[in-house]
Amino acid sequence: MVKKDEFFKLEKLLSSVRTNTSNLSIKIFTNWIKNTKVVAVPFTFIYGQPSTGKTFLVKKVIENVELNLKNTNRGNRFSFVDVIQCFNQKLMFETIINQFKKREYKFEKKYLSSLEDAKTEIFEVQNLETRIDDFNEFVFSLNNLVDLHAADSLSSRYIVRIIDNAQILLSWGRNCNILRALPKIYEMTKKKFGVVLISNQTFDNFQDITNTFNLTNFVHFKNFTKDEMLAILLKEKPYDVKDDNLYLIYLNLIIESYEKGCRDLRELRYISKMLFEKYIDPVKNGKILECETFKLHKNFEKTLESFGSSLYLRDISSLEWENRLKKEKVDIEETRLLKYRDQQENGLSLELPYYSKFLLFASFLASFNPPKFDQRYFTKLGEGKKRTKGTRKSTIANRINPRLLGPKSFPVERMLAIFQSILPCPEESNTSEIQFQIKSLCNLKLLLKIGGLNGGGLDIFKLKCNIGYQQ
């Protein structure tokens, strides 16, 4: 399994695609952020599906604006809050105010020279934290923050509060006034305050509460197309994979398999990282070549089906999945060794069809018995006993066990004749079925083909039995 540090961060990959798009709404938002004198739109609503680069691009725009602004010796124009980390509005208000205060304090402090100074600074920063109970205290703290630096650059700037995952505010209930008050904070303070909400839901769910449709700048992040997703995920190709085409075919297979039930790029990225080791395993073992994409697809189908039922669940971590793959390899190897031991100790245990058992028995008799004894053993009348000269002792002494000499080849006609003689009901046998089962026994290597001219019929080539007496 490819480790996490071998991949780029998802946000960087998103930016490589989104920053090149000519989205008019993003340009409007960027121009509004850069405007330090005129309040263009005090309330901006950014929405789109998860994993479309909303949060990262907003942070990127803010960083670029702060770097390009002049006279940035003091203050911080932006405050970023993730609602997931705030379980109530009191904690969210305190986070916004304390971010500005701590930032101001850091600009005023010089480098510390001793441990005592460091302890003093920690104590002073803790004292800077403001406790806010309601929205009125929040507005009062904002006004004090700007009035305190009336002569500094902070008062001439447009202070922006960015609230990520704003859809969680809807779950706080209609009794929560924060959604009604945040868009109107500019009217309440008459200061250069702006609010940016980032949400996975559309503005229709917020409009009944905020009632600020005319004062809102909308920025919509559209879903990634298939080509964009392939371009992003291809940049996360593992370093040990040299062929881009192989990984591109794999990503295309993942997206086509799950795009109907999942358009989340983070989830597709997670799946592609988890399953690639399973996909490439036959290539590493030498069973399938890289160019044999159809065989790779067929070998990978069961894994795709089993993993499709756990989309978004993430019921197994990447480490557990890696351990499971290692355990499967060990189990397969142990099973193979156990089968080999069973075959060596107890012989081959294979359930064969009815006629195949008699065919195998007939081939064994044909391989280990001389043809001259067929009439004696397999005909009803048999042959008369012939008197031969010589002593019986010398004949027995010179006789060698046929099993020690190994199996001998025989024509197919002889095996079929023995088969008909030992079969309980030979009249019920089907010729086409018997020929098919002879071919199956050859494929199983229970019978070996010795001869045959240009793949001729059954009456040309010879066979040899490939099983022992114990089997």
Automatic annotation (TrEMBL):
Domain Origin recognition complex subunit 5 C-terminal: 352-469
Residues in ORC5 lid domain copies: 250-296
Example of a GO biological process term: DNA replication initiation
Gene3D superfamilies: P-loop containing nucleotide triphosphate hydrolases (3.40.50.300)
Assigned GO CC terms: nuclear origin of replication recognition complex
Signal sequence segment: none
Compartment(s) where it occurs, according to its Swiss-Prot or TrEMBL record: Nucleus
Tree of life domain: Eukaryota
Keywords: DNA replication, Nucleus
Alphabetized SUPFAM superfamilies for the sequence: P-loop containing nucleoside triphosphate hydrolases
GO MF entries: DNA replication origin binding
Xref: InterPro entries: ORC5 (IPR020796), ORC5_C (IPR047088), ORC5_lid (IPR048866), P-loop_NTPase (IPR027417)
Protein name listed in UniProt: Origin recognition complex subunit 5
Gene: ORC5
